TrEMBL record:
Transmembrane segments: none
Coiled-coil intervals, chain numbering: none
GO molecular function, one term: cysteine-type deubiquitinase activity
Name recorded for this polypeptide: CYLD hydrolase
Amino acid sequence: PESFPPLRDETAVHVLRGRMKGIQGHCNSCYMDAALFSLFSCTSVLDSMLFKPFPLCDRNVQSILRDEIVNPLRKTGFVRARSVMHLREQLTEKGQYSSFTNAEKDPEEFLNLIMHQILGIEPLLKLQSGSQEEQQDCYCYQIFMDKQEDLVVPDVQQLVEHSFLTYDLKLVEIPSCFIIQMPRFGKEYKMFSKIIPSLELDITDLLLDSPRECCVCGDVATLECS
């Protein structure tokens, strides 16, 4: 199948900036538009979703995603709402949720459906809570946290660290892809007026049993204080 590489640097600015660019919204599609744009416009880390014959892979959904959404986005910088609606109709049929075509949904529900049930991709994240041995496998991490008065305009690094600390979570291993859902979605309430993207994410302190430097003496740390 024809494929186009993700957009980079000046090319990304040239192709994606301006009117009639991005993914056209229609009928509460913003959750899916934003997720698809984030996953495919400027990165190839999940391009296996477009080509690889996974065990449960639905080739029809895969071709719609590749040929009607990702390729036009990377080639011209614009995707028509009709193309996204075509995908939403297929998700409704496969997932047995009629509201995928007209209602606002949680991005995590969309990702779980298309990655797990339709394409059959292995979970991207392995999380562990506190001293519990049981692992939680998931496809994305949704940031939950109480309102922090000192975080007026936070960056992604701060939000991830606060959220992991609040719920005593650790990454069992370095993820191949770390999809993070910001606490800034939905119509009713937004915790922060804006969030600064962290262009790099330091997960050193978020990894389970990872050797780290003592902040006092500089040797390998033996104790961790939250």
